[in-house]
Amino acid sequence: MPLPKLPTSMGATVAIMNPEPPTATTTKATVSRTASKTAAPAKAARQADAPALKAPGIQPSAKTAAKEPEEVAPTVPAPVAQARTPAKKRRLAASKRKLFVLDTNVLLHDSNSLFKFEEHDIFLPMMVLEELDHQKKGMSEVARNARQVSRSLDGLVSGAQNLEAGVELDALGNAEALGQLHFQTTALETRLPIELPLGKADNAILGVVHALHQIHGKREVILVSKDINMRLKARSLGLEAEDYLNDHVLDDSDLLYDGVMPLPENFWLKHGKDVESWQQGGTTYYRIRGPLCSEFIVNEFVYFDGDLPLQAQVKEVSGKSAVLATLRDYSHGKNNVWGITARNREQNFALNLLMNPDCDFVSLLGQAGTGKTLLALASALTQTLETKRYNEIIITRATVPVGDDIGFLPGTEEEKMLPWMGALEDNLEVLHLGSGNSELSTGSGGQDWPKNSTMELIRSRIKVKSLNFMRGRTFLNKFLIIDEAQNLTPKQMKTLVTRAGPGTKIVCLGNIAQIDTPYLTEGSSGLTYVVDRFKGWPHAGHITLQRGERSRLADYASEAL
């Protein structure tokens, strides 16, 4: 929202100023924050009392300001001295700021990218504004971002008197943006070292970057683009170019939280003293103490395969003590979930999360064949049709094709989504036929179920929805499965997760090694985003499935191909 109008009288200015002027020992970080908060009042103070600024002796020396602030302050009008000091420091620091030239695809990828460059300045070529205008029509994510960027730019320049001097990026309340926004207001004449075709937007932007590099001399001018070829051309011309990395949750996907911690061999030697245990609701709890407890994360799974094997879930962490809860063994046939049993340790951990009514958000990562969709669908059917915990299953996914698009799909919303739900049909077949498990084909009562009537009953509780119509909805007592979540942006993921109403459970499935959305990487995927942000929340859990259980052919293909 826009900031309130600045006061016009000196008395009003005094009321909003910081009562204590910054000293010479102020750190750089403090100066940047102070400058951002007082830049606008400083401008009002200079306009209201311009002669006072020119008076000699108005700026105290660093030595005097540091040692005797009480004696120096009365010699100068308080609002003027307090306004000018941070403003001057900010102007001096401007020569050290970097000047980032943003490519259009950065703005279309992240509509808030204008405010993500901290104290550095931003330059927008006229060609970028032209391309934004061409992209603003439509209902796609790109069109929405283009419109949002246009609104932000309009809000920034609405109160600016002189665009050539730059516009403060914190004018709309973005306190972390301490730099200025500059527009191309004149034609920049330059000659590139290599002749490039005229009339192409990328080449026009490169020409602007080259001209700015010559104008600003020693100041760093850097092109920021999501286009790899654009960055390659810039570097070939001797220009600095970088990728937009602010949307990356992690620099390395290997650092992504996997939800499991193996315990060291000396675990019981260091944590086996003064162990407390109790039972509650059929679950055994242990309170242990030791140096490793501080590294635990709530809802993280820990295991020990030594003489005293342990598989537990962290329920509470307090300093060097933690509370562990035993797990239900879903690898045993008596604990099967819709006829499905866990085939490895990670699948057992996943089923403990999926079947826990206190866990509202579950994310499962893993390569193809690890059982993500099968486990989620089996637990959804059990809790919807048997225990009646949820009244409906909703499945959705990002409709991003692997190859060329097959074109228009006729029918209703659900009929249009069916071609994208091949995994649903395959897993329903496994769950119905049992995949060699006789309990599925005969049911719990030992009687044969008519195939058609059973499938109709299952399908009546499963709804396939498109992401395009999720905004504004609220799901009550639903089991929502988001498949192929690695193809969603963080903004799309937020839109989906915030649809959850009371009694709803959301399960995100995906493999960050198979991203088909342009401009998304393992570090910037919406799936990586939610795994990192929900880590440690008591009502969320995550597991990375390691072993493939589809077939020996699929396992070998995943390793060899």
Short summary of the structure?
This protein is 36% helix and 16% strand. The chain has 561 residues and is of the alpha/beta class.
Keywords:
561 residues; 16% strand; alpha/beta; disordered N terminus; Rossmann fold; Elongation Factor Tu (Ef-tu), domain 3; 4 domains
Tell me about this structure.
By secondary structure, the chain is an alpha/beta fold. It has helices at 10-16, 28-48, 50-54, 62-67, 69-72, 78-93, 104-109, 126-135, 141-157, 201-216, 228-236, 267-271, 345-354, 372-386, 413-417, 422-433, 438-442, 451-460, 490-497, 526-533, 552-560, and strands at 99-102, 121-124, 167-168, 180-183, 221-224, 240-242, 260-262, 276-280, 283-289, 301-304, 310-318, 321-326, 361-366, 392-397, 462-464, 478-483, 505-510, 540-545. α2 crosses α6 (78-93). It is elongated. The protein starts with 9 loop residues before the first helix and ends with a helix. Mean pLDDT is 77; it is low at 1-92, 401-406 and 435-447.
